[in-house]
Amino acid sequence: MNKGTSIKFNKQELSGAFGDIGTDLPLIIAMILAANLYIPGALIMFGLMQVFTGWIYKLPMPAQPLKAMATLVIAQQIGGNILLGAGLAIGVVMLMLSVTGLLDKLALWIPKVVVRGLQLGLGISLCSLAFKNYISSDAINGYILAVISFVIILIFIDNKKYPASLLVIGLGVIYALIFKIDASDVPKAIGFSLPALGVPSVEDITKGFLLLALPQIPLSLGNSIIATRQVAKDLFPERPELSIKKIGITYSVMNLINPFFGGIPTCHGSGGMVGHYAFGGRTGGSVIIYGSLYILLGLFLASGFHNLIQVFPLPILGVILMVEGISLSSLIKDVAGDRKGFIITLLVGVIAFGLPYGFVISMIVGTIIYYLPLSLDALSNLGSKNKPSN
User: Fold this and answer.
1) Which of 30, 237, 307, 343 has the fewest CB atoms nearer than 10 Å to its CB?
2) What pTM value is reported for the model?
3) What is residue 210's DSSP assignment?
4) What is the DSSP track for 265-317?
């Protein structure tokens, strides 16, 4: 059996399982609070989607919250019913794009240097988020914890005997037990819950499409589909059968199922795959282990979720998120030899990070510049010819 075609469960996969938690967990918590979501449904369905993708791809192909939707829901306090309707709407749209072949055509049209720029922009965004929101959250204690965690990761990042993320997560648990969690509260959190069945209304689907799905679609095309396929080719070149169409279909399937059981809208993501890989994940085992954590939380600990999540201190999540961002940004090295391409990559990355709806704008601007008939050298020569002589 070829490398990457079987699912493994070992220390490396367990370590890789925590490679994307810095991105996912804070967004899930914030959406649950902002949209008043039913906690068991949100957690269990998110976990099941991880198991689904790990089993289908046999790679560390994660499911992630849809970031544009999450941002809008959190910022504007949009209700849970509309969020679930938006998930169903984007599932239908992505299915149509996939089965008609339009997704493949879009992927062929958007050049690799633009994809690398989108990854750079996302990497910078993750690092910025890590510093601003997570690492600084516990004042001086947070900074000390973050520095120790980062040093541990640098020392043990490639150590198979002592996986880096397990050491850092263990450090976080000790920190939480000392400073955050009252052990007497843990038994009170134990119970049993299941997702609740529901059907989004036509009104919620329509509002969800207009308010949440439309802003999300361009980001999903760039990062969730095209960039994820590129990362999979980079990290697992022996898996040529991983197609744009397949990624689009599994994206759509997740969102055609989630809304009926209270699950948040989910996608794939290049950053998530890089995060799992950076900490040791090489098969679907890492995302299956990761998903099982959410399933167990939803089934048995949902009533105490808000207290128990403190076992993952924000500075620890921030360091993991920063490593994911650095790893994602480093992928631009393969376009460094192409002068025009590298400049476009940097431009796309800066726009994606710096502007509202930057991922949409940068993808359009970068693609247009790439196809301009004049090269940068030609433009430079033209400029020098127009200079007045001394």
Assistant:
1) 237
2) 0.81
3) I
4) PEE--HHHHHHHHHTT--STHHHHHHHHHHHHHHHHSGGGHHHHGGGS-HHHH
